[in-house]
Design brief:
By secondary structure, the chain is mostly helical. Helices cover 57% and strands 6% of the residues. The protein has nine helices and four strands. It has helices spanning 21-28, 55-68, 73-95, 101-122, 131-139, 146-149, 158-174, 180-198, 203-212, and strands spanning 2-4, 10-12, 35-38, 50-53. The strands form two sheets. A two-stranded antiparallel ribbon has the order 1-2. A two-stranded parallel ribbon has the order 3-4. Strand 1 (2-4) and strand 2 form a beta hairpin. Helix 3 runs antiparallel to helix 4. The radius of gyration is 21 Å and the shape is globular. The two termini are 16 Å apart.
Amino acid sequence: AFVTAGPEAVRLFEYDRSRGHQVAERILGTQRRGCLVTDFYAAYNLIVGRHQRCWVHLLRDLHKLKEEQAEKSEVVEWATAVRKLYEDAQTWLREHPTLTVKERRCQYETLVSQLCTLGQQYAPAHEHPCTTLAKRVLRHQEELFQFVLLPGLPADNNLAERSIRPLVIMRKISGGSRSEKGTKTRLALASLFHTWSARDLNPFSECYLALLHPTATSPP
């Protein structure tokens, strides 16, 4: 699922047998602009450009770590400290609705520096419970606070997750399409109707216009 928000929102659904980075690059092209918001799936690491990694996925793993290592105070404290950085960033943005580029950059660098300090605490440790997540935050240190730099950028990929969920449920109930053509048709229609819905457009009117002018691209 490739989604954007705003008045020109887009919902584009694509099926491919591969989960490799080539699929995203084929859809997005090599001249894309903006920031790609994704989870930590390794294939996204190969896509050139700005990235914002999903904090919801990271927070979920931090919570799981605290539950599994509840008896180890240093683990709970470390996971809590990482979460607090995210909460501090969100609080700072809420309390400062009007920010200059310089102010955003300064806060971004402060947060990244603090995150690196936390990551370096356990990344070199051998088989410590925090090592895996510590290495993750170090690896993606520049990709966790892009939402501080870019106004309106979400800190998670929830929009994409919610957008694709109805199709996943439909596939589970129906068993999926029985042909390649059926899959393409279903996803093309889903892309159109979900985009119209995201833009608050009347699907009947938009479908009528699309059928009336079949060579036109709707939505763009």
